[in-house]
Amino acid sequence: MVGKALTVVGLACVCTCCACVTACGDPGWPSNWAGYCTAASGMTSVSASWVQPYVYPNDANGWVSLWVGLDGRYNGTVEQIGTEADGSGRQASYDAWFEMYPAPSHQIRMTVHAGDLMTATV
After folding, report:
1. Is 29 among the domain residues?
2. pTM of the model
3. Is residue 83 part of a domain?
C-alpha cells in the first residue's frame, strides 16, 4: 500500500468519505451520502484517511468518490478534497481533486491507484 497525502493550502479541512446514509436527518441530502454533520460553530479543520477502492472497467455503475471537507451548510460554501474512481470506460481511471465551492472543482496532478492509502487535509 502506498501512502499519499492531499492538502489544500490556506484552508483548515481534510478529506473523508461519503457513502450511504442521510446526513443530519435532513431529507434534502442525497440518500447515497454518509458522513458527519454538526451544528457546532467554530469548526476549522477536518482530516481523513481511506484506501482507494478498486472499480471494474466497463461498469456503468462502477463509480465512487471519497472526500473530506468543511461545508458552509448555511452560507453556500464548501472546501473539500478527495479522490474518484470511474469504471465506466474501457479502463478504470483514478484521480484526485479539490473544490472550493461555489468555484468549480480542479483535478490534482498526482497518480492515484486502487489500493493507495490516501490521507487528506483541507
Report:
1. no
2. 0.72
3. yes
